[in-house]
Amino acid sequence: MGKQRILSGVQPTGNLHLGNYLGAISNWVEAQSQYDNFFCVVDLHAITVPHNPSTLKENTYKTAALYLACGLDLEHCKIFVQSHICAHSELTWLLNCVTPLNWLERMIQFKEKAVKQGENVSVGLLDYPVLMAADILLYDADKVPVGEDQKQHIELTRDIAVRINDQFGSKGESVLKIPEPLIRKEGARVMSLNDGTRKMSKSDPSELSRINLLDSPEEINKKIKRCKTDPIKGLSFDEPERPECNNLLTLYMLLSGKQKQEVAAQCQDMGWGQFKPLLTEATIEALKPIQQKYQEVIDEKGYLESVLRKGRQQAEAVANATLSRVKTALGYSVPL
Ligand code: TYM
């Protein structure tokens, strides 16, 4: 039996941060040799909120370069840009026509983002999860490695696939494969440095709320120095009323590569003044090789373009085959 397939992506909006890395990309890297992997830069999703056309292309390349810098290996992975493959938009339309409107109105992320935007909410923002379903279903993905916040979107993807199969599958044959989320326990929800009850997010107006993968050692030092803590001495993972404590210890554990028990023992009698330099050091050390590799890749634009061209060719063949299968099931004629 062949390897199971993985599909995932990150939006090229703003800077990628520790949440994107620990919740998603580092898990892709860790498991890559076990799977047949497709990773896209989801630039069509990036325009579901108002965007700046003069930075979209650059951010798309930066995100792809970060995929490589974080350790994705082309021996195991196809890396491509979502908008380079028309099948993503076309399958979205077909899925739109079988997806009940109230399924989309229920989506937590839509509700949160819509509140922030007031009058300016686009149809695209509401439709965001259907485009994400198309991304996943086009590649017959078995698993979708993401952070906790994307779980509801994957459940919706499954519901849409089941509906297509029920309505258009024939003789017990399904049209679309039903994917599973792959969400790691630790790091699936990295919290803001300003508030341990809110998710670390690219759209938070405060730069101090997140550590970006390309932050300099000085910036990392400043952000950790200023991050929110509490007045209690002795640090532990298991005190729900201390969300910042749990978040910062988890960051330290994941970035230093230490086991949970080891960190718990090391930090149980520490105060914040002792802990913060440790976290700063671990963060700088974990990001250093990523930043070095990023610089090499981004300086070699021709290389990056060749990676994305090859990725597009490989991904397009798979995506077009699925699109044809769905169109045939829906009753479309094959183009002459
Ligand atoms: P995006 O760009 O918002 O997030 C990319 C990935 O990072 C994870 N993530 C986090 N994980 C832990 N803690 C955080 N604070 C945190 N913030 C973000 C997200 O869960 C995600 O895995 N809708 C997707 C993009 C997408 C996609 C897809 C993903 C579009 N099509 C198909 C998988 C499959 C998103 O949230 O992007």
Structural class: mainly alpha
What are the low-pLDDT stretches, counting only 5+ consecutive residues below 50? none
Report the C-alpha radius of gyration, rounded: 21 Å
Helices and strands, in order, run as EHEHEHHHHEHEHHHHH
**Per DSSP, what share of the residues sits in E-state strands of 2 or more residues?**
5-15%
Percent range of helical residues: 40-55%
Largest β sheet strand count, sense and barrel closure: 3 strands, parallel
Count of extended strands:
5
Mean pLDDT, to the nearest integer, reads 96
Which sequence of strands runs across the widest sheet? 1-2-3
Written overview of the protein:
The protein has 336 residues and is mostly helical. The chain is 54% helix and 7% strand. The protein contains 12 helices and 5 strands. A 3-stranded parallel beta sheet has the order 1-2-3. The protein has a two-stranded parallel sheet with strand order 4-5. Helix 1 links the parallel strand 1 and strand 2. It is globular and about 70 Å long. It starts with a strand and ends in a 6-residue tail after the last helix. The chain binds tryptophanyl-5'AMP. The site of tryptophanyl-5'AMP has 25 residues, from strand 1, helix 1 and helix 6.
